[in-house]
């Protein structure tokens, strides 16, 4: 199939060692093959099953897991300890 994992990693700002590229490519190809194998749904009206509602986990914030410097290290641009984003409003 030929998936360019290094390009995808660059777009996602991920660092992947060259030794791992073949493994990630194989995993990505299996994911795409699984998605291709899904049946087509035509003219099917899907409605939620109210009697079988999905139970969501309670959202818990993890405090103190990362330092501010560790989080900002992933940002493309930082000014005065904050994320820098393009100006959208004049």
Summarize the structure in short.
By secondary structure, this protein is mainly alpha-helical. It contains three helices and two strands, in the order H-H-H-E-E.
How does this model look, in words?
The structure is a single chain. With 90 residues, the chain is mainly α. The chain has a domain at 5-36. Helices cover 31% and strands 4% of the residues. The protein contains 3 helices and 2 strands; from the N terminus they run H-H-H-E-E. The protein has helices at 5-11, 21-36, 68-72, and strands at 78-79, 82-83. Strands 1-2 form a two-stranded antiparallel sheet. Strand 1 (78-79) and strand 2 form a beta hairpin. The longest helix has 16 residues, at 21-36. The protein is extended and about 55 Å long.
């Amino acid at each position: 199939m030929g998936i360019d994992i290094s390009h995808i990693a660059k777009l996602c700002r991920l660092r992947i060692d060259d030794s791992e590229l073949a493994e990630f490519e194989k995993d990505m190809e299996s994911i795409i093959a699984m998605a291709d194998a899904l049946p087509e749904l035509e003219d099917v009206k899907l409605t939620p099953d109210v009697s079988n509602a999905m139970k969501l986990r309670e959202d818990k914030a993890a405090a103190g897991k990362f330092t501010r410097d560790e989080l900002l290290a992933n940002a493309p641009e930082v000014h005065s300890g904050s994320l820098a984003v393009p100006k959208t409003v004049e």
